Amino acid sequence: MGVFNLKYHVVLIALFCFSSIVQAQHHYVPLYKSVNYSIMNEVDTLGSPVHTSIRPFRVKDVDSNAWYQSTYGSDIFLDKYVPEFTFNKESNTPIKLSAFPIFSFVSGFESDYNDGGTFETSIGANFSAFVGSKLDVNLNLIRSHSIYPLYIRNYAFNNQVIPGQGFAHATDWGYHYRNSTGYISYSPDDHFNFQLGRGKNFWGEGYRTMMLSDFAFNYDYLKITAEFWKIKYSIMWAYMKDIYQIENAPSSFNGKYTAFHHVSWNITKRLNVQVFEAVVWQEQDSLVRRGFDVTYLNPVIFYRPAEFSIGSPDNVLLGGGVNYRVSNKIKLYSQIVFDEFKIDELRSRSGWWGNKYAAQLGVKYRDAFGKEGLSLQAEGNYVRPFTYSHQNPQQAYGHYNEPLAHPSGANFWEAVFLANYHRNRWYFEYKYVYRQQGMDDPQDPTDNNGSNIFLSNDLHNSEYGNEVGQGIAYTTHYSKLYVSWLLSSKSNLMLEGSLSVWDQDRSSTLHPRSFMASLGIRMGIFNQYGDF
Fold first, then answer.
1. Going from the N-terminus, what domains does the chain have, and what CATH number goes with each?
2. How many other C-beta atoms can be found within 10 angstroms of the C-beta atom of residue 142?
3. What is the pLDDT of residues 346-398, one digit of tens each?
4. Predicted model pTM
5. Secondary structure element (H or E) that encloses residue 222, with its range
6. Whole-angstrom Cα distance, residue 73 to residue 51?
7. Are 84 and 97 in contact (CB under 8 A)?
8. 18 — alpha (psi -120 to 50), left (phi > 0) or beta?
């Protein structure tokens, strides 16, 4: 790519400043935390029918809330300046078409490392079609150029990908990358939804999740959601890519499939229980092209527990979660996911390498101390060595060199504290992450302490005595103060600013602390994580 053309991008931004995605028409709320957290702060109450552990939210589940209506019901810019084209108006299935530009422009600096500062810019377009109230077609095409802080540049160099954004193409001034998302959504009635798309999902109540997060890059999927009584059941099949230690273009990456089942049950107005299952298998091995295994079309969850207990040739994960509303303002939540284990080895506490599991425990406090809109959250995450890995690295629980659950993979424990506050169109957030993780020796390719989920777990260093944090000890501190003002609600266009600090202590050798600041304008379509 050539040198960044600032004048070109400024002209585009000036032209596009009042356009984007008309969210009010969408059947799904974008997976953007400032929006999602503000919604959860309003709808996560005693007796709420909303399954808050399943995201993205469907608009129909949250649009009756008074705060949502006042914030997203109208838009002073888009309602006035952006046209919509409606055909067949008199029919029961009118067709609405729209096409809008997408952009983000965020500039900043990092202490000590980037003399030219940091920079993020994205240009793209959204195309939408709505046929009646049942069929929704949506497509986002985005192209980005960025200069990142040093630790993210190191991540991109080592993993070949921008965190959560796809293959990293290096340029003279940074990285460029493309990000396309979209879906065809069909809802024949109020109980079922069928979605064919490319994007991300998040299953869990916490800031992190041990099940399925939105950290890794977009993937192709088919998802069926059934909602009846107090139960929401999601089935999803996804096509993903294994690119570990493959240095060629994305077309040469290895394909693999993943099948998911997730059930959320609001048993009472206080108690919610979830169960989860995921299976990963490679598209082709050295002998045969396996392709999609039709066995996994079975919609019944946990139909393979016997195979799981004796060791499946595929990578099978089972888990669940329990959420409990102590009061209208306080909620406790938890998760546990088992990748592999033996009861006898668990009881003996021998540190057997194959006892692979992840756990989470957290608490939320909404309208904290009587302050409406203020939410506090604290959680702890614990992942045993070798969890999410497999004897066949292509069947690791990951996609595009990134974990599908927690961004840090395995072999760590972590504490997270969040405070967020929303008031009308303002959103404030403070986040602090503390993590201790054991890593492999970068000079020894045979060293496997269980943090890298893309290494074969057959190559573990020791059979017994494995503990969380084994290997070269890393301690990470990350804190961030973020503020935004919602300029255009239906497009999630916001003015934002942030201050953040990242430092990492490697076996008592302190790395220089990185202080970062940024200011800009962004369209909140997807999350970008820097706290790994």
1. 27-78+191-523 (2.40.160)
2. 21
3. 888 888 999 999 999 999 999 999 999 999 999 999 999 999 999 988 999 99
4. 0.90
5. strand 219-228
6. 22
7. yes
8. alpha
